[in-house]
């Protein structure tokens, strides 16, 4: 057998892409301690913390309006599945954190969607999960956005849009539940 045949099977690694934006980033340089140049490995059992305290946080934001520990991301394996995910937890007592439109108070946590926008204060972070198989670690890849993320990208709509193009939000806002209509009845 050749060395190629005996080589270990190459694993793909789960990578969390995080794109940061703040309107004052050019003047205040709050992202100067983040490594935007290359991917960084994080052990699966480590909690990735974001905040201004460099002794407690792996990812430092140099801004006095950011909590010492703002939020954390925990890598985990989903129960009864081979898929991996991330859990996000708000660790700030003073600032609420939103993940898409879900607001998290202090110590609230949810599963991080595969693609979402995390906001607190004037900070916007686009999080995108690239799936992999490795179990011992994951990677983070940080990016810096030039323009606001909320205006730059459109996230997929959470509500399906019917073929006739009429949004069901009007009928849902009146407290009625959606009903299925045969397209020939229109």
Automatic annotation (TrEMBL):
Transmembrane segments: none annotated. PANTHER family: TRAF-INTERACTING PROTEIN WITH FHA DOMAIN-CONTAINING PROTEIN A (PTHR31266:SF2), TRAF-INTERACTING PROTEIN WITH FHA DOMAIN-CONTAINING PROTEIN A FAMILY MEMBER (PTHR31266). One of its GO terms (biological process) is innate immune response. One of its GO terms (cellular component) is cytoplasm. Residues 165-186 are annotated as: Disordered. It comes from Chloropsis hardwickii. This is TRAF-interacting protein with FHA domain-containing protein A. Belongs to the TIFA family. The keyword Metal-binding does not apply. It is found in: Cytoplasm. The keyword GTP-binding does not apply. Its main location: cytoplasm. Residues 49-121 form the FHA domain. Residues 166-177 have a biased composition (Polar residues).
